[in-house]
Design brief:
Strand order of the largest sheet: 3-4-5-9-10-11-12-13
Distance between the termini: 26 Å
Strand content: 5-15%
CATH topology of the domain at 119-178: Oligo-1,6-glucosidase, domain 2
Number of strands: 20
Bound molecules: 1-deoxynojirimycin
């Protein structure tokens, strides 16, 4: 977070406008109980590390009671802690410890769907068609003879049809229920007032326990077209993990929910002056659509995924950044940048392809992209391990894969286990200090030997590590008025290079090519993602300078 400042003559300072939040994937962060799975006490133990890194807050992936069909994004009880991760007392200790260190805590709330083990879904299965219990979800009769065909042609995001047929209490094949992800994740019916009321109870439950806000899963979901008609292009829906079915996503009613949740947050802020934050996982087709989610009375932030999806190419990056600045920041909001998360192939690997393995190109580009992201106006999210320069683990054997996408599509394409491998902390061999368990305790996903190179202890001791780049970038963001919230001005450059100025004299440039180019500023850089001699910007490198007049 940059210091209190005036931007364009307006005091726009709200902590979240340019916050840097660290995403903690709890089961892979640090295991304090020795079962090979990370937990809340582990997160608490890791807070000093995060404070040293200099982030403003953390977002915790779901830790609620759950059968873990989708690693916690299948919630059976929204107002408790799964024993695998701890308990409410441990949660309270974590929040208190984070508060003492000045680290804000965001929880992950999952309002589009729950777990098929949620008591309300179990009640729905036991109740009759047309009952109030079933009305909380989307139950419908099938089509075709005996209702044996799904009610419409929608595809689930993780493969297969979006409908599953139930066996009625009398043993006969019965109605179908809708699940946009896996069958273990039935979608809520947000047209039912009880559903909205229960989520408000959940928000208040955690706000009363002191959290600073929520990351909202599938925030362009929740409402479906009221008639549940066939999708116009089911093949397109099936081809991608993006939410493209216009009848299942991005319905206008969802904005009323965000207005209400924002009002709940404001109510808490009015009580104690602490601004709460709502950040939405918003996948919509255009930056302009995206901007509708961050209107002044809706979500504070929404992840802008176009940067994450852009290929390593100067024109592609410039296009998405310009669109975001115009269509999102242009409406008075800030852009929320993200390069990595628990659903995506890590940047080091993504940007490395198809470079020869071991060339270091992906690592260099990932560092350059990080420096670019931290120089952009707005907020940024860092996914655990990104600060260590961790690559994706691409060769996990099939029998350890847990991502339901693998099970449901039979394909390794786009599976998410490789970015979720437990973090290396210390030592030369797995578990690299990840677990406090007795010798032989295995992390829930196997760590490759080469993780030794990336262990946090090693990264902290080596000033050339990615960790130091992130830490230095965050320190400069906090110290320099030019960074954080505000605007940018593109500078003329040669093809394959991007350069922009921030405020009074800060310049960031990125060389997307592999050959060196003249630096846009003559002095020594303040910070660079790799060796950067004065006057030169080497290939796959980004740097920041102060351009003194
Ligand atoms: C998005 C989450 O990031 C992902 O991990 C999850 O599988 C889906 N939403 C469904 O909840």
């Amino acid at each position: 977070m940059a210091p209190h400042r005036q931007v364009d003559g307006v005091n726009r300072h709200h902590w979240w406008r340019d916050a840097v939040i660290y995403q903690v994937y709890v089961r892979s962060f640090l295991d304090s109980t020795g079962d090979g799975i990370g937990d809340l006490a582990g997160v608490r133990a890791g807070l000093p590390y995060l404070r040293k890194l200099g982030v403003d807050g953390i977002w915790l992936s779901p830790f609620y009671p759950s059968p873990q069909a989708d690693h916690g994004y299948d919630v059976a009880d929204y107002r408790d802690v799964d024993p695998v991760f701890g308990d409410l007392a441990e949660f309270d200790s974590l929040v208190a410890a984070a508060r003492r260190l000045g680290i804000r805590v965001l929880l992950d709330i999952v309002p589009n769907h729950c777990s098929s083990e949620h008591p309300w879904f179990r009640e729905a299965l036991a109740a009759a068609p047309g009952s109030p219990e079933r009305a909380r979800f989307h139950f419908a009769d099938g089509r075709g003879p005996d209702g044996a065909e799904p009610p419409n042609n929608w595809h689930a995001m993780f493969g297969g049809p979006a409908w599953t047929r139930v066996t009625e209490p009398d043993g006969r094949p019965g109605q179908w229920y809708l699940h946009m992800f896996t069958p273990e994740q039935p979608d809520w019916n947000w047209r039912e007032a009880e559903v909205a009321a229960d989520f408000e109870r959940t928000l208040r439950f955690w706000l009363d326990r002191g959290v600073d806000g929520f990351r909202i899963d599938v925030a362009a979901g929740l409402f479906k077209h009221p008639e549940l008609p066939d999708s116009p292009d089911p093949e397109a829906d099936a081809r991608t993990r993006d939410s493209v079915n216009p009848l299942a996503w991005n319905q206008p009613e969802v904005h009323d929910v965000w207005r209400h949740w924002r009002a709940v947050c404001e109510e808490y802020t009015a009580r104690d002056g602490r601004e709460r934050l709502l950040v939405g996982e918003v996948s919509v087709p255009t930056a302009r659509e995206h901007a509708r989610y961050v209107r002044a009375d809706e979500l504070h932030q929404a992840f802008f995924f176009d940067l994450l999806s852009a290929p390593w190419d100067a024109d592609a990056f410039r296009k998405v950044i310009s669109e975001a600045m115009q269509d999102i920041a242009g409406t008075g909001s800030t852009v929320t940048w993200v390069l990595n998360n628990h659903d995506q192939v890590r940047t080091v690997t993504r940007y490395g392809e198809p470079a020869p393995e071991g060339s270091g190109l992906g690592a260099a580009r990932a560092r350059a992209a990080a420096l670019l992201m931290l120089a952009l106006p707005g907020a940024a999210y860092i996914y655990q391990g990104e600060e260590l320069g961790l690559p994706e683990v691409v060769d996990l054997p099939d029998d350890v894969l847990t991502d339901p996408i693998f099970r449901r599509t039979g394909s390794r394409a786009r599976i998410r286990d490789g970015c979720r491998v437990p973090l290396p902390w210390s030592g030369q061999a797995s578990p690299f200090g990840f677990t406090s368990g007795a010798e032989g305790t295995k992390p829930w996903l196997p760590q490759p030997e080469y993780f030794a190179e990336y262990a946090t202890h090693r990264a902290l001791a080596d000033t050339r590590s990615s960790w130091h780049l992130y830490r230095d970038g965050l320190q400069l963001r906090a110290a320099l008025d030019q960074l954080g919230d505000g605007t940018l001005r593109w500078l003329d450059t040669q093809p394959g290079v991007l350069a922009f100025a921030r405020g009074d004299g800060l310049v960031c440039a990125v060389n997307f090519g592999t050959a060196p180019v003249p630096a846009p500023v003559s002095g020594t850089p303040l910070l660079a993602s790799g060796p950067c001699p004065t006057g030169v910007l080497p290939g796959s490198t980004a740097a920041w300078w102060i351009d003194a007049p």
